[in-house]
Write a structure and sequence with these properties.
mainly alpha; Rna Polymerase Sigma Factor, Chain: A; Arc Repressor Mutant, subunit A
Length: 212
């Protein structure tokens, strides 16, 4: 979970000792009317400087972003750092988002760029071996067992893919990148991206057959 007080120093962001200079939240709130609101409403409010609306976006997407970052980077610590950096960037740049309704894919692009930048910086492309879907809230024991079974099956299926197929599949299916965006971020031809994703889908379907 994104914790403002734990955010690292970021270039161009005013940061107090206890965290970035997000507007303070005053007093107890009435029943949360934003929790079930559409992304367009929540992101629009956050872009106008509403810190509570931004907290709703954090709660809504931090788990997915962390899972994605961990899948790319391979470690929890780096994933946590990348997600927090991504939220600092998002808070800075939300007012530049033309369509608040696409905030999910926008956040995923930010965390993806951060993750890929880390890979390039350390010049080591680690294998992606885990993809754990977000936990189901208020799930029954049967749903928990099924979710864990699915997570294990997806993890095994991803582990069986070559690294290039894994990265392209995650960028397409989790981060919702276009083929062109994947090609640009990974610095490979778009035709190669299409081929890798096509093969990854076939391989994933075959590996997941037993779970179904």
């Amino acid at each position: 979970m994104f914790v403002p007080s734990a955010l690292p120093e970021a270039k161009g962001v005013a940061v107090k000792e206890e965290g970035p200079a997000l507007p303070p939240t005053a007093g107890p709130r009435p029943k949360d009317s934003l929790a079930e609101a559409h992304d367009r409403v929540v992101a629009g409010r956050a872009a106008d400087g509403d810190p509570h609306a931004f907290e709703v976006l954090v709660r809504r997407y931090s788990t997915l972003m962390r899972v994605y970052a961990r899948s790319i980077l391979g470690t929890n610590d780096e994933a946590d750092d990348v997600v927090q950096e991504a939220f600092v960037t998002a808070w800075q740049q939300l007012d530049s988002l033309e369509d608040p309704g696409v905030v999910k894919s926008w956040l995923m692009r930010i965390v993806s760029r951060r993750s890929i930048d880390r890979l390039r910086a350390r010049r080591v492309h680690e294998d992606i071996i885990d993809y754990d879907p977000p936990a189901v809230e208020a799930a029954s024991p049967a749903q928990v067992v099924q979710a864990r079974s699915l997570a294990d099956a997806v993890g095994r299926a991803l582990a069986s893919l070559p690294a290039g197929q894994r990265r392209c599949w995650l960028l397409k299916e989790v981060a919702e990148y276009s083929y062109r965006q994947i090609a640009a971020d990974l610095e490979i031809p778009e035709s190669t991206v299409r081929g890798l994703i096509s093969r990854a889908r076939v391989n994933m379907a075959r590996e997941m057959q037993a779970w179904r």
